[in-house]
Design goal:
Number of helices: 9
Strand order of the largest sheet: 2-3-1-4-11-5
Bound molecules: phosphoribosyl ATP, magnesium ion
Number of strands: 11
Helix content: 25-40%
Distance between the termini: 23 Å
Strand content: 25-35%
Radius of gyration: 19 Å
Order of helices and strands: HEHEEHEHEEEHEHEHEEHH
CATH superfamily of the largest domain: Periplasmic binding protein-like II
CATH architecture of the largest domain: 3-Layer(aba) Sandwich
CATH class of the largest domain: Alpha Beta
Number of domains: 2
CATH topology of the largest domain: D-Maltodextrin-Binding Protein, domain 2
Length: 211
């Protein structure tokens, strides 16, 4: 049976933002129709035999929807999974797009000298990283524009996502060290993964479409 027949009836939750375009391209490469228009504001469409059901969600919410079985599968960055690890989901594929790194950065590449403040939206990842090194820090929670923190005197270091490094450079910041390599992951509801063969077939269709 082709993937198209076996995967009908599957619903996938996709993180909005930069994961979404690559996820759409991968689905299309796997022979599925992308059922939402380019400029569409629609956030949900049910499955038919040309495409899976799609739910567009905030990155943080993707794992919740999958854990509750609202979606069989989800596509979300590893960084988000590590920062919000409580949902009971299985990671079933590394889709290898949306690659980036979570890094510690500051005005100099030197490791912080003694206790220091770290501005970040990755509070859990940052805490765990420094705890493992027994280095005392305090977190300054910020949800965006992290690069500003050292410039305006909010905190000397940040933990943030880097891709090309351009954003750091433009703000006179440099990497101290990489904390996590991230890419988009396919996650699954554990019981649907075990009992719905079309969920496994859908993963195979995405994996065989990887370029
Ligand atoms: O609401 P929230 O910000 O959480 O999500 P969003 O809906 O705005 O999503 P978006 O578009 O920010 O994408 C987030 C996800 O994409 C992350 O969870 C990562 O898994 C992945 N990703 C991959 C990235 C980047 N690359 C990336 N470069 N997320 C963010 N960036 C930002 C980074 O924060 C920094 O501002 O891009 C800038 C750095 O890029 P360079 O190329 O200048 O280094
Ligand atoms: Mg964002």
């Amino acid at each position: 049976m082709s993937n198209r027949q076996t995967a009908s009836g599957v619903t996938v939750a996709v993180a909005k933002g930069r994961i979404l375009d690559d996820a759409r391209r991968r689905l299309e490469a796997a022979g599925w129709v992308w059922p939402l228009g380019e400029e569409s504001r629609q956030l949900w469409v049910g499955p038919d035999d040309t495409h899976p059901g799609i739910i567009i969600a905030r990155a943080k919410d993707v794992a919740t929807l999958v854990a509750r079985g609202i979606a069989d599968l989800g596509i979300v960055g590893l960084d988000v999974m590590r920062e919000n690890p409580d949902a009971e989901v299985l990671e079933v594929a590394d889709l290898e797009f949306a690659q980036c790194r979570v890094v510690l950065a500051g005005r100099s590449p030197a490791w912080p000298d003694g206790p220091c403040q770290i501005a970040t939206k990755y509070q859990r990842i940052a805490r765990q990283f420094f705890q493992e090194r027994e280095h005392p820090i305090s977190i300054v929670p910020m949800s965006g524009s992290l690069e500003l923190a050292p410039l305006i005197g909010l905190a000397p270091y940040i933990v943030d996502i880097v891709d090309t490094g351009r954003t750091l450079r433009e703000h006179g910041l440099v990497e101290v060290t990489t904390i996590l390599h991230s890419s988009a992951r396919l996650i699954a509801n554990p019981s649907h993964w075990r009992t719905k063969s079309e969920v496994v077939a859908f993963r195979e269709s995405l994996r065989s479409a990887a370029s």
